[in-house]
Amino acid sequence: MLEPSIDALQEKINSKYTLVTLSAMRARQMSETKNPLVDHPFSHKYVGMALEEILAEKLTIADGQKKDSE
Asked: What family is this (predicted)?
């Protein structure tokens, strides 16, 4: 079982494409800075940490971008 679950993540960001893009960009950033936004992440990999940040609402899409719910 993958954590966090895709269902929980899609409650935060409805588009799977946006989830993948956002988490990949953040993972690349973390590989350089080594600074996650969540305290004590469960994942040891950067993509997992980025997904945890999305679930914790520490990482979101910009306000100028359209969300599916709008």
From this structure: Belongs to the RNA polymerase subunit omega family.
- Mean pLDDT in the chain? 86
Contact assessment for residue 41 and residue 52, using Cβ atoms and an 8 Å cutoff: yes
Instruction: Please indicate, yes or no, whether the overall pTM of this predicted structure exceeds 0.85.
Output: no
Q: Read out DSSP for the chain?
A: --SS-HHHHHHH---HHHHHHHHHHHHHHHHHH---SSSS-S-SSHHHHHHHHHHTTSS---TTSPPTT-
Which tokens go with 50? 């980025």
Per-residue pLDDT, 2:
63
Q: Is the CB of residue 60 less than 8 Å from the CB of residue 67?
A: no
CA–CA separation, 28 and 46 (whole Å): 8
